[in-house]
């Protein structure tokens, strides 16, 4: 009896999430392809439900951040004092946000702390691009030789001085951008589209079950 | 052709939807057929992808150094337009978690979208169970950093820059913030395998990482790293459909040119 109950429990744990995923996935597909008001309304309902699920996931994220940093403070791990700052500020923002997400304190924090910090961090990108370019321009293999040659031709062809070097350079640059580069990008996009469809079809047919917590049956 | 167009119009199916339908419809039977064929005849021969070889090699190196591996599944999440990329990152995590845990070192996993947090925790926990020590699982090894991309990059940069990890694997959807992370890794001498589908980010990846998985290669993780039959079958199906698309393009060019 106990074995039977266990078998039913395992079966339900596997099949219920799979059946739900397949049914809702199929419904969303039908919603995408056909213009049927009832199905479209149901599809919109599920899309809106995602917002609620994401809100709960955000709550889980906050708990995770607090757990990770409380532990860091407790164990006095390297940089634990930064964790005190993080936890304090997180709690201040949460408390300040209780009256509403657009309260004066929250707006002030976002305008005067969050956005300037974002802008400052993102402005570092220019320097990172320079170091990445230097790293990329080292000759490591035949591929990197092609990378360097193409980069130099396009860079020199792009600036006015390129014309003084040779009249051909701007033309070669245009050809590189219009023919091999566009062809390569389109090839990547076609491959990515097929890969995305493959992933979706595997989930829809139940081959992949990233939601169930069970081992894949098709290994 | 006009008859088909009229049928689609009556059903409320637009031109782009009809094209998508034409791609999607053959995928289901072809996937089932190839899946069955692989089960009966064995695994097909796969071309070598250096990025996946490097993942195996770097896992070994990290184990030897006694340091952990950082895994990121990108700044996208589940239920977004880049769900497939995030799922590809989860497949890579599944492999890394199993191998890293075999050496007793849990990977450091960071997520930017909270929807990925419970799924990634589940993948690592499952790997712990399969390695035989479920009690050894530390839920905090999967960390939610921030849903803001710049803040996420800063948090990951901190992890990569303080000697906690020996290798960095980032597979998923990334934007410009990618460089803020990978350059920190490169400056600290970490071995890095990265992959994404965005053609705009791929040059950054190529320049700053040791190995790059280009475009659709990230979707092949299940076939190359885990050897799953369904993933091998979908890889074969993708190849068939790609051949069909190339054939259609060539025929289209010839018909247009000759007409």
Write the layout of secondary structure elements.
The complex is a heterodimer of chains A (219) and B (259).
Chain A: H1 2-33, H2 37-74, H3 80-96, H4 104-123, H5 125-136, H6 142-158, H7 161-165, H8 168-204
Chain B: H1 2-10, H2 15-24, H3 27-41, H4 50-65, E1 68-74, H5 83-102, E2 108-111, H6 116-130, E3 142-144, H7 149-160, E4 165-173, H8 178-187, E5 191-196, H9 202-208, E6 211-214, H10 221-226, H11 229-258
Number of helices of chain B: 11
Q: How many strands in all of chain B? A: 6
Count of DSSP strands of chain A: 0
**Helix/sheet category of chain B:** alpha/beta
> Could you say which overall geometry of chain B the principal axes of the C-alpha atoms support?
globular
Count of individual helical segments of chain A: 8
Distance between the termini of chain B: 18 Å
Q: Major sheet of chain B: order of its strands?
A: 3-2-1-4-5-6
Question: Which spans of chain A have pLDDT < 50 for at least 5 consecutive residues?
Answer: none
Low-confidence stretches of chain B: none
Biggest interchain interface, per-side counts = A-B, 64 and 80 residues
Helix share bin of chain A: over 70%
SSE topology string of chain A = HHHHHHHH
Descriptive account of the structure:
- The complex is a heterodimer of chains A (219) and B (259).
- Chain A is mainly alpha-helical and 219 residues long.
- Chain A contains 8 helices and no strands.
- In chain A, helix 2 packs across helix 3.
- The longest helix of chain A is centred in the first third of the chain and has 38 residues, at 37-74.
- Chain B has a 6-stranded parallel sheet, with helices on both faces.
- The mean pLDDT of chain B is 89.
- In chain B, helix 3 (27-41) packs across helix 11 (229-258), helix 5 runs parallel beside helix 6 (116-130) and helix 7 (149-160) packs parallel to helix 8 (178-187).
- Chain B contains 11 helices and 6 strands.
- The chains are: A mainly alpha (219), B alpha/beta (259).
- Chains A and B meet through helix 1, helix 2, helix 4, helix 5 and helix 8 of A and helix 2, helix 3, helix 5, helix 6 and strand 3 of B.
């Amino acid at each position: 009896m106990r074995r039977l109950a266990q078998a039913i429990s395992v079966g339900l744990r596997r099949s219920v999430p799979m059946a739900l995923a397949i049914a809702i996935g199929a419904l969303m597909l039908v919603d995408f392809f056909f213009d049927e008001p009832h199905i479209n309304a149901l599809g919109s309902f599920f899309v809106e439900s995602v917002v609620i699920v994401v809100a709960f996931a955000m709550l889980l994220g906050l708990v995770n951040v607090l757990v990770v940093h409380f532990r860091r403070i407790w164990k006095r791990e390297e940089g634990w004092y930064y964790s005190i700052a993080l936890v304090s500020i997180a709690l201040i923002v949460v408390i300040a946000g209780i009256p509403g997400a657009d309260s004066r304190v929250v707006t002030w924090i976002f305008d005067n702390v969050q956005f300037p910090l974002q802008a400052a961090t993102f402005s570092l990108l220019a320097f990172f691009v320079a170091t990445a370019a230097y790293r990329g321009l080292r000759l490591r293999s035949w591929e990197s030789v092609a990378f360097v040659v193409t980069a130099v031709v396009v860079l020199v062809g792009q600036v006015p001085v390129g014309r003084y070097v040779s009249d051909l350079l701007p033309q070669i640059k245009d050809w590189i951008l219009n023919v091999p580069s566009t062809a390569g990008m389109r090839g990547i996009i076609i491959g990515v589209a097929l890969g995305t469809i493959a992933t979706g079809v595997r989930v829809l047919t139940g081959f992949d079950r990233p939601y169930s917590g069970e081992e894949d049956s098709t290994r | 052709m006009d008859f088909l167009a009229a049928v689609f119009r009556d059903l409320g199916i637009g031109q782009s939807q009809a094209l998508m339908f034409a791609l999607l419809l053959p995928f289901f039977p072809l996937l089932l057929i190839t899946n069955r064929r692989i089960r009966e005849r064995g695994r097909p021969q796969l071309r070598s992808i250096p990025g996946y070889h490097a993942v195996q090699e770097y896992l070994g190196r990290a184990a030897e150094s006694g340091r952990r591996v950082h895994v990121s599944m990108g700044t996208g999440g589940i239920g977004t337009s880049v769900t497939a990329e995030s799922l590809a990152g989860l497949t890579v995590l599944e492999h890394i978690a199993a191998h890293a845990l075999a050496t007793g070192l849990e990977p450091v996993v960071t997520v930017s979208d909270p929807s990925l947090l419970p799924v990634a925790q589940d993948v690592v926990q499952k790997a712990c169970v399969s390695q035989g020590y479920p009690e050894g699982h530390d839920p905090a090894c999967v960390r939610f950093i921030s849903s803001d991309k710049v803040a996420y990059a800063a948090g990951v940069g901190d992890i990569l820059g303080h000697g906690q990890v020996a290798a960095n694997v980032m597979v998923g959807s990334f934007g410009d913030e990618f460089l803020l992370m990978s350059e920190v890794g490169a400056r600290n001498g970490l071995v890095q395998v990265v992959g994404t589908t965005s053609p705009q980010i791929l040059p950054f990846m190529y320049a700053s990482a040791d190995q790059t998985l280009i475009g659709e290669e990230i979707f092949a993780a299940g076939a190359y790293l885990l050897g799953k039959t369904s993933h091998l079958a979908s890889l074969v199906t993708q190849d068939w459909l790609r051949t069909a698309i190339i054939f259609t393009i060539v025929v289209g060019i010839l018909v247009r040119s000759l007409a």
